[in-house]
Structure formats: C-alpha cells, structure tokens
C-alpha cells in the first residue's frame, strides 16, 4: 500500500502498473497486488480508507466539540482541520495529499471514494451542521461552493506536500497554519454574496 501510494502520487494512477508497485514494494511475485487487493479500485479504496479512518477520528472529536454551533467557521474547521492535522503526522516526505488529488481527478474512483466517505458519521454530521448555517443560500449555490471548497482543500494540501517533499518554500509555516488559512478562505467563499443572473444570461444557459 505504501509503495502504491507513493507511485500513484508521483506518476499518476494510469501511468503505474501493478508490476511496478510489486517491484517497488520488494515483492518477487509481480501478481502480488492482484492477489492481496484484487482490482486497482480495491487497492485505491484500501489506501484511502486507511487515511480516512484516522481523519474521521479527529473529525469526530471536533464535531463533538462544535455540536450546537451556528457559526459557519466552526463547521468549516471541522471540514478542513482533520485533514491537515493528519497530514502533519505523516512526516516528510509524505504522499497522501498528492495521491488524493490523483484519485479525485479520476471520475470512476472519485465516485467510489466519495460515496464511501459520505457513509462516515463524523463527516455527515459536519456537512449537516454546515448546511444548517447556510440555509439562506440557494441549494445549487451551496452545491457549487461545496465543489469549490473540496478542490481548494485537496489541491492546497497537495501543493504544500509537494513543496515539503522537494524542499522548496511553502505558503504557510506549518500544517496547522495551512488549516487556518484554508478555514478562513472557505468561510469567505461560503459567505460571499450571490450575484443574481440577468434574464438574458439565464436564457442562454
């Protein structure tokens, strides 16, 4: 799993074969990946699940502390900070954030991991709490901004992880600061005013 995560993060999902993963893991049997995990989707799911379980433990603690809050920022923190807190424990170099970007840009695998993530109660509670603070936003705007927020979290974390692995400068001095910056940005995104479409634009759409 560790070899697959690293190779997928560095080269992309399509470019990496099961043979390459087996060789990188020091396995003489080139069919070891298929034997232990089955399909590539099963392997990806196993890697994501390993990290997701650790992240959801953190989120559960935060959600319990936040329960009852009507502040958007409190619930955004529950969305963001479990990931950055987990990434801080992985050391340097790590590959999970860049691996997650590869998964989220694959339409089939993205659907698999997203559906599984939404079965986890801490995330469901976080999204419910956040949604309750955003009743004034039209449903389609909430959905669109949710997509934007997911992209912002995923790619910001991947860029920081890459910079740390390469020894180049980072925007924030720590994962904790990155979590704070993301929380600020996403809170602003969710609370931004909504521009009403003109009738002409709606007709063209």
UniProtKB/TrEMBL annotation:
Residue stretches making up the HTH tetR-type domain: 2-47
InterPro entries from the UniProt entry: Homeodomain-like_sf, HTH_TetR
Top-level taxon: Bacteria
Keywords: DNA-binding
Entries under SUPFAM superfamilies matching the protein: Homeodomain-like
Pfam families recorded: TetR_N
Coiled coil: none
Keyword DNA-binding: yes
Protein name as annotated: Helix-turn-helix transcriptional regulator
Native organism: Streptomyces endocoffeicus
């Amino acid at each position: 799993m560790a070899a697959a995560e690293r190779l997928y993060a560095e080269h992309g999902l399509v470019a990496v074969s099961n043979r390459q993963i087996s060789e990188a893991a020091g396995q003489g049997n080139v069919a070891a990946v298929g034997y232990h995990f089955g399909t590539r989707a099963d392997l990806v799911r196993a890697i994501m699940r390993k990290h997701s379980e650790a992240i959801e433990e953190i989120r559960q603690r935060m959600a319990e502390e936040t329960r009852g809050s009507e502040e958007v920022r409190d619930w955004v923190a529950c969305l963001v900070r479990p990931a950055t807190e987990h990434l801080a424990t992985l050391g340097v170099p790590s590959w999970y954030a860049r691996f997650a970007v590869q998964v989220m840009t694959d339409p089939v695998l993205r659907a698999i991991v997203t559906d599984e993530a939404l079965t986890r109660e801490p995330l469901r509670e976080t999204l419910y709490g956040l949604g309750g603070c955003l009743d004034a936003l039209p449903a389609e705007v909430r959905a669109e901004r949710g997509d934007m927020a997911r992209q912002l979290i995923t790619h910001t974390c991947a860029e920081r992880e890459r910079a740390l692995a390469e020894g180049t400068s980072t925007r924030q001095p720590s994962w904790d600061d990155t979590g704070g910056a993301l929380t600020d940005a996403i809170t602003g995104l969710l609370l931004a005013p909504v521009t009403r479409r003109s009738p002409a634009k709606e007709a063209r759409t």
